[in-house]
Amino acid sequence: MENVQILLCQHVGAPCAPIVQVGDSVKKGTLIATPTGLGANIFSSVYGVVEEIKEDRIVIKPDEEQPEEFEPIKEGDKLEMIKEAGIVGMGGAGFPTGVKLSTQLEGGYVLVNAAECEPGLYHNIRQIEENVEATVRGLKYCMEITTAKKGIFAIKEKNDKAIKILREAIKDEENIFIHLLADIYPMGEERAVVRECLDILLGVDKLPSAANSVVINVETLLRITEAVEEKKPCFSKNLTVNGLLKDGHKPHVFFDVPVGTSVGTLIEMAGGIAEDEKLGEIILGGPFTGKSTTLDVPITKTTGGVIPTMEFMDFHGANVGLLVCACGGNEGRMRELADKYNGKVVSVVRCKQAVEMKNGALKCEDPGNCPGQAEKCIKMKKDGALYTIIGNCSDCSNTVMGSAPKLGLKVVHQTDHVMRTIGHPLYRHLTISKKADQLPNGK
């Protein structure tokens, strides 16, 4: 077995501090690092020996035998156990769940992000299909802790099987509902979930608590149930491996992968990269918000996907304009893509709804609802761009297509090489309604 590399920062906040030493024996669930401020406990995901402690990670050499048993967390009230278990937002944000659930809603809402918004990822929906009871119990624990009156699963209307299973599971629950979402990106953005479920548009600087709610990811609910009922620490991850694979780009869903497992091991678990096709890049995460990675990089509590992609088309040195959007990659990621396409960046503009926060990150004023990008397209054309690479949401991409082709700009979405690899429609024209056909908050 390869060494497991457990990163010391798997959450919002500062890196954790190691509390083990080289040579220590550890088990699944052994506490190996603790927060130095805002953060969450980190545990060993394997039985083994600490081989190395680096500035950013703890390296563990696994034993040949890996028993199923784990070291339990200590008994306490439900919120204390969630904090002790080191649970964070496992949809990618990584905010410590124990801190989020400290909010007293006093009759508000726990909103479950079941959108599985990143195309090509399937593990959240599969979890609902295969483990709905534990998922619903996790929501009920959240409602109890936060004193919320109602719980709402926000799930895309297209997921017929999961919705049917979920409806059956909550048929006797008077205060738990389902809200159907349209199949557009980014319906899983936290403020989009609040807007769709509660009809409240939060400002870019507001948290869901401003709408008397908290938003919790589907997998996070499962880890909450494990902590409360089994005293299980958070040391494993559900994720999807998809893309340029030997079996014809079939998505593979893996449950309870030990945190610290390498990208390369996960690709091998999925059968390996197709040998007769040229690799473009490997993405850690989803097509919109993921980053390029290498085979030796370890997964964390927030990793959602591993996607090897087909090779990039060649721009042959042509001029490129970048339209940077809060919903997709940042400027650095967009420049990386332009380089991989063999293009020359001559213009960089931002989506008109992208607001820069104090930490430098961008947030959209109204995620998934875009008023138009003609002005930005004209700017890129004036700067001499032949191509534009965009990272926009479904609606924003649609508005780009209303002006860019008329200006002679060739549009490439940052997800194109991924979408072509997995056989998904490209993000261009919006062909469906942005509202699901539904009764609000129905069963």
UniProtKB/TrEMBL annotation:
Organism: Aequitasia blattaphilus
InterPro entries cross-referenced by the UniProt entry: Ion_transpt_RnfC/RsxC, Nuo51_FMN-bd, Nuo51_FMN-bd_sf, PR_assoc_PrdC, RnfC_N
Pfam families in alphabetical order: Complex1_51K, RnfC_N
Record keywords, A-Z: 4Fe-4S, Electron transport, Iron, Iron-sulfur, Metal-binding, Repeat, Transport
UniProt-listed NCBIfam families: PR_assoc_PrdC (TIGR04481)
Domain NADH-ubiquinone oxidoreductase 51kDa subunit FMN-binding, first and last residues per copy: 82-225
Top-level lineage group: Bacteria
SUPFAM superfamilies: Nqo1 FMN-binding domain-like, Nqo1 middle domain-like
Protein name (record): Proline reductase-associated electron transfer protein PrdC
Domain RnfC Barrel sandwich hybrid: 3-58
